[in-house]
Amino acid sequence: MAQISYQRFPKVKIREMKDDYLKFELRETDASMANALRRVMLAEVPTIAIDLVEIEMNSSVLNDEFIAHRLGLIPLTSSRAMGMRFSRDCDSCDGDGQCEFCSVEFHLHVRCDSDQTLDVTSHDLVSSDPSVVPVDVVERSDSSDQRGITIVKLRQGQELRLRAIARKGIGKDHAKWSPAATVTFMYEPDIHINEDLMETLTLDEKREWIESSPTKVFGLDPDTQQVVVIDPEAYAYDDEVIKKAEAMGKPGMIEIYAKEDSFLFTVESTGAIKASQLFINAIEVFKQKLDAARLSGDTEEADDQFGELGAHMRGG
Amino acid sequence: MELGSSDKTKATFSLADEDHTLANSVRFALNQDPRVTFCGYSIPHPSDARVNIRVQTTGDPAKEVLKDALQDLMGMSQHVRATFDKAVVDFKTSEPVKP
To answer: What is the pTM for the complete model shown?
Structure first.
């Protein structure tokens, strides 16, 4: 029985794109889809982070688990992550989750011998795989200002020696695996100025009204002395201008709606994955989830497993 | 996964290891389909990663309708991906890379 597909075809337009920052518009899709992508970007795109730490020697002021926790939070370049296996699913290692297919090994050995305080930073982590390194190591580009992420500080005579295993994981399990610093989306605003009502205001009143908005959304056209919209996206959906219009005795002078199918995404990555790659990976992960749901629907389970739930769902 | 084997047009599907991420999008996709008379999802307990999706249709088996909705979502995701890739290329060619 062929059914007409009511699938919509969303449109994408990129506003700004840097390595770790991405701003783009997503149109003609629903909020549930936009939210699903946001949730996946934050919690379900896999990255690599240090997960197991074997400390051989630690005479620093921080205790072992403190240092292990800090090591876990260091972002590592995770372009390999999508193709890697989870340690728990890996069948090529002896079961301890430390083979070359499912993990990356790091070494750290620092001893402070001078009487100056020594900073142990992410630059001191030595990786067994040059494609998986702490994020700030890549950005070094010969500038000695970049000292790396501080792990611990050592005094003369103190030493830190450890071996760390980094594994693939998702943000849902622990925030150290989340590749996104922040992902937000806002509805695009649709602003209508009632010109007739606006004309009844004096120039000073217009200025006052424009000033009442916490963000610079409106401005005064110098030539025509009309109120125009300068930057609709600066509108933060506070209703200050609407309340001000009502307070001035002109309700209905301004109408602002949120377009329900137009979203402006801002994606900021920690550096583990490039921002544009993060979005692409999120779509792939979302597709995998849909696939899993589609295929699991092929198994039928006994009705008695549903007993109580069935009664609850039927309103019994 | 199905509730009541006699009437195939109404069913509740329980998906394990899922949450609002998938369930809300599937619910939206189901609502787009005119064959669906009722659809909704619930999460029985927040600590339990399980989602129940209820579908009632005008005559088609609920399982088929759900599968079609998932298929539509796949197609939409694939389209978003292709559109995004193209948008990245357009952006890169329109703005020369600054050192």
So the answer is: 0.85
